[in-house]
Fold:
Amino acid sequence: MTMTSARAGDDEDVLDSLTIGRRVRQLRLDAGMTVEGLGEAIGRAASQISVIENGKRELRLAELQKLARALGTSLDAMLAPEPLSRRHELEIALERAQRGPLFRSLGLEALPIRKTLGDQAIETILRLHGELEKLHEQRAATPEEARRANTELRAEQRKRDNHYPELEEAAAKLLSAIGHRGGPLSQRATSELAAHLGFTLHYVGDLPVSTRSITDHRNGRIYLPVRQTGTDPRSALLQALAAHVLGQPEPSDYGDLLRQRVETNYLAGALMVPEESAVAYLSELKAARELSVEDLRDHFAVSYETAAHRFTNLATKHLDIPVHFTKVHSSGVISKAYENDDVQFPTDPLGSVEGQRVCRWWSARQVFEVEDRLSAYHQYTDKPVGTYWCTSAIVSASNGDFSVSVGTRFNDAKWFRGRDTSRRLTSTCPDPACCREPAEDTAAYWQGRAWPSARLNSSLLAAMPDGSTTGVDKVDVYEFLDRHSATTL
Ligand SMILES: [Zn+2]
Structure:
């Protein structure tokens, strides 16, 4: 960040003349002198004193000495790093902000700093300025368009309770065309579906790394990798078929791309877990108060993530249960999220959730602390917006371990297996004191004495968590250091 360091140098000079100017003013007022009076005493016009006091001119040493004498103080005292009054600090900060590039880029006329401008007004302006600066930094770091499109898409999913009747119907038609009678969709049925749609399947060893499959419309072929890295060998093919059925054109922008991805995932999920038989099965589980994502997974022989995803498609529409869903990397950073139960996800100032770090007391992160990774994990969490019950599981992918969680409000926990868990934690996030700030003494101990090297965040949608530049979680780093320095000494 060469720009920042170049600017910092300028800022320090500005700060200096600003600080000295304010100090001159303070001393003058303390001495009960007017601007004219001080001007006379050092042989300058009153307007020149104002220029000095406003920090608009650098002072030579000789001038400083003259001023000090006139104000009945010493040069040392004038330059002493005594704390300025709060008011003066605010004025200096505002002056700095107004001279900065951001303020100028807005084309706003500088606000004259008068006594009538209250401290609170200055504080508010500074706060807004700071937030605006942060936003600009984040925008520079991530494709804003992608994140905005994603935020819109999530709002739309929420509005329809994450249920897409036209896609459910498309799935039902396709399945009935190959005579599927509900239950798990076998690999063979998947191939039949491809044949029904006029495609032959070709498993190749040299599929471009950046693709999951390639559909050749000219020859009616679908190319798939011989070795599939994903958990479910059906999903790449079903997604290719879904894209074909949906007749998706080349996406024209991020919004398009994301919408298409949501729709193909949805249709692929609806083929593996058909609505009719899934709703019948889930209704039975609900009646028995035994709802569980694992059972849905096992019943349809799909991955945990597909089961959790399908559960959110059907839960509100058919079971009358508002839910939330998260997929969270082991670092705590959200990669996917959906909610219609008013659980509050952390967001950046543009409302984007992906790339933000969830509270460390949430189930989505607590599940990583448990040694038994095979059993289902359940937890109640008291949040500022209410108490929620969540169930989480860890899934492994080529880019790391993720927790997949489904949660619901306390009142709806009664329908789920695992409601009797005794795990109950409190989260006060977004209050930074909840889990985002290191304890004061820990911070004081390590501040400036540790250098965590950041792993760069490569997600397309991700802004850095908490608007930080590196995405490093200091709480984690300090805990790590504490732990290791204690055991190796
Ligand atoms: Zn927290």
